[in-house]
Amino acid sequence: MGLLADRLExxxxxxxxxxxxxxxxxLQSAQGPVVQLDGRPYLNFCSNDYLGLAAHPxxxxxxxxxxxxxxxxxxxxxxxxGHSTVHHQLEEALAEFxxxxxxxxxxxxxxxxxxILTTLLRRGDHxxxxxxxxxxxxxxxxxxxxxxxxxxHNDVAALERKLAKASGVKLAVVDGVFSxxxxxxxxxxxxxxxxxxxxxxxxxxxxxxxxxxxxxAGSTELAALDCSGAQVLMATLxxxxxxAGAFVAGTETLIEALIQxxxxxxxxxxxxxxxxxxxxxxxxxxxEESWRRQHLAHLIRRFRHGAGQLDLPLMNxxxxxxxxxxxxxxxxxxxxxxxxxxxxxxxxxxxxxxxAGTSRLRITLSxxxxxDQVDQLLEQLGACWPGT
Length: 388
Hints:
The protein is of the alpha/beta class. It has helices spanning 3-17, 57-70, 78-82, 85-98, 109-120, 135-143, 156-165, 187-196, 219-222, 252-261, 263-266, 273-288, 291-309, 329-341, 371-384; strands spanning 34-37, 40-44, 102-106, 126-130, 147-151, 170-175, 200-204, 232-236, 246-250, 321-327, 344-345, 347-349, 359-364. The radius of gyration is 21 Å and the shape is globular.
């Protein structure tokens, strides 16, 4: 087959040997607290559908109405003829909800982060990122051409030292809620450090938007940061809102610059209008039904209390992401498999997603779960945990 095929086969073999080989699950049902897989129901504790909106009847109905009105595909990029009324309405609603002058839709969080960083930065600038940032932020920083540095996770002093040594354009980049650890960035302190050194702060709030803050507007709401404190806010629609895509919110100048220059915005087909309509409906539910966030917060407390009683090594997280630290990859895979045999769907997270020696079960809770389902989770974790 040739040298390239041989290299690919060798790489796959190493992944299997190191217990790092990944396989897709093929669901036979909608997202929810219980899903169907291989003809069998599973309690689902690995979805990012934090508010239980992905299969909400109102969201589905909004999608169907918009598909009937606008069709399925958007037909072109936003700058050609793919930008519909409902896209515009969603952007305006997101801007208002996040307290920013404008918002701009992207097809995915990955494309949003790549587009933002490669538009804002150029050779000679400085981009300084938290060591545990999402891969899309790291890739965007590396591809921007700027001088790329990382600072120790959530270490404000470490960031400030790097900012003090840099000159010219400086951008600090963090996750609002870190996707694999579940902890939050110290945004007020980070924003203050950036202000002292004439730097901008970018927050990727994919896992905080919809969940954090009194209204669910996310980590920046919780930290009371507007455009002057967190100049760039990115969040996704495929997690708490249960749909798909992403948006960037900020000043008029920021959004216009992205429209004119972000290659991942200019050169891609717009999200289907029906997705935008479904997202608008989800945003309405987020505003109306605060009980979802309250119930989720209750389940998080209940789970952490029960895990403490079982002496399970949970990581320090107050979010819907509750990582259970296992250590080596093989043990994490074995534990995930044992739980699957008992009807629980929980993913084993291994390198390179997380550092070597920190493989874990990434347990995610949803407002769609019940207390009884969380108690079942605790019972099965206690039964399957090594040494029990």
